[in-house]
Amino acid sequence: MPDISAVRKAYLEHSAHSGHVLLPSASLVPENDATTLFTGSGMQPLVPYLLGQPHPAGARVANSQKCFRAEDIDEVGDNRHTTFFEMLGNWSFGDYFKKEQLASFFVFLTDGLGIAPERIYVSVFMGDEKSGVPRDEESAKIWQELFAQKGIKAEVTEGVSSETGMRGGRIFYYGARKNWWSRAGGPEAMPAGEPGGPDSEVFYEFTQVSHDTRFGAECHPNCDCGRFMEIGNSVFMEYRKRADGGFDRLSQRNVDFGGGLERVAAAAADEPDIYRAAEPLLDIIAAAEKLSGRRYGADAGETSSFRLIADHLRASVFMLDAGIEPSNTERGYILRRLIRRMVRRADMLGLPEYALAGLSLSLPKSYSGVYPEIGEKIEKIAAAVRAEEEKFRVTLKRGLGEFRRAVLSAGKKSLSGDEAFYYFQSFGFPKEMMLELGRENGISVDAAGFDTEYEKHQELSRAGSVQKFAGGLADRSAATTALHTATHLLHQSLRNVLGGHVEQKGSNITAERLRFDFKHPAKMSPEEIAAVEKMVNEQIEKDLEVVREEMTPAEAKSSGAIGLFGEKYGEMVSVYSVAGFSKEICGGPHVSRTGGMGKFRILKEEAVGSGVRRIKAVLE
Question: Percentage of the chain surpassing pLDDT 90?
Fold first, then answer.
């Protein structure tokens, strides 16, 4: 059975053989990209090149990208969802298009990995009248030809659902909700300037899995019963959204392919449970089995807990490696939530307290060949996991004390949904524990009301993410571009005023303002803030030229460019210089000259974590 290391290696070799330059994985923390808290796809760091900027490595690139998707946290526990994963990806920037891409992936699956073509089903774009994008008949014809080469007559159908079933099809037309891709979702959800396009998804059929009628009377490729699993998606990114809601063609036709490494490995192994097909996850589960005396697969609830611990622990290790620390805001909050969810499930499995740190030690073995830094930092990472578990157990103990005082000792006979959610949100006090204590003490707990409050909280979080995306750097407006250049001026000014220890820890740029996080141990004084503000404005008034150069990472470092040199870069990088003042590795875009950007003003300076400060500023 091929493991994920073998599948990753095979894919990268296949891509290199077809003329792609192999790129290292970008950081899990996006650099100069406000569209999301985490890198959630391989294309995320490549947006400037999809919009027409020449890539230093050429028109064909590929990699295996570390990804994290917070929106999948509540889905973890089944046999196919994870928060952290690797995305196999290849891109064409105005080079090959549909015919070459679909054939290449099909050949990789069938000839490279030995997957039976009879198990493969595909979908294509039905067209969208409202957005003016036509039906993708070209991809449907290409797929028919590819299946015919394997002796399979592939019927094309549309309108399939849980009521109609497969209708004898192998190639299925779906609408924009299923077969259109952009980082924001469908055509209507895309902000102005965002690239996107129709896509063609590939599904693998696990014939040993019977259809579950809870998901509908009949099965079809997009059914959630588990018989079919999406393993790859080729996006034909040739459109860009206009401010009036319409679409223009991009200056070049691009291919953006992504396939989940763990899912492709599961298909290659004909294993519907990706936790059995991915050895890093299986190693954690095996170690947890020994410590708990429980067996993976024996009980549905316990199996869900094993999966959650394996996924969340791997994700936490990679987050900590990326420099994220547990906190109550943004990335740090997500990390804290992962660790606390693990602690609860570890207790439910009967694992010893503080076992999670020890379980993390199994991961370097699986990743030593591709991410050696995990092994180099694992002791420090394990210590951070333990420290967060210790904090949570103190909080949990305090929450239990408060619950006993305010609910049990007070003689309450019921607990409303919003009250129950208060204990969950304030103390991390699990709903299951409240229900258990309620049963033991004759107190009714409104579980449905709790779920309603929890869903409200989730909707607010999702809305915040959408708002963050809609105003992000990806819109490439003049205002956003100017503020992006202002972050470079701000970064260098902070280093000049506060010292060379200052390092960027994150940024969020909208058309209205910039937000810049940086490493610094103390609150800035009013004099320091004024000095930084003055220095930025001086560079704007000088009308300095902004120049983009391409060079190797070593050349960039020796030239004095600021960059995350602990991260892996490709053979060539883009370096933006503001004449005589600042120089940074960056994907762009930037203004051509600083004059006319406006007056820079700092609105606020505050702490966001241990040793991390945040500045909010505007151009007026």
Answer: 57
Measured CA to CA, the distance from residue 54 to residue 32 in angstroms comes to: 18
Buried b (16+ CB within 10 A) or exposed e, 258-267: bbbbbbbbbb
Where does the chain hold its CATH 3.30.980.10 domain(s)? 477-619
- Looking at the chain, the domain(s) classified CATH 3.30.930.10 span 4-273
The pTM score is 0.73
pLDDT digits (tens, 9 = 90+) for 22-79: 999 989 988 766 557 898 888 878 878 887 889 999 999 999 999 999 888 888 999 9
Rounded to whole angstroms, the Cα distance separating 595 from 246 reads: 32
- Strands 612-619 vs 514-519: parallel, antiparallel or unpaired: antiparallel
Q: Which CATH superfamily is domain 477-619 in?
A: Threonyl-trna Synthetase; Chain A, domain 2 (3.30.980.10)
Query: Is 4-273 assigned to CATH 3.30.930.10?
Result: yes
DSSP code of residue 499: -
User: How many residues appear in the chain?
Assistant: 620
DSSP state for residue 575 in the 8-state scheme: E
pLDDT tens digits along 71-125: 888 889 999 999 999 999 999 999 999 999 999 999 999 999 999 999 999 999 9
Place of tokens 């109550």: 328
Please state, in angstroms and rounded to a whole number, the distance separating the CA atoms of residues 487 and 620.
15
Alpha carbon 432 to its chain's center: 29
CA distance 352 to 402: 25
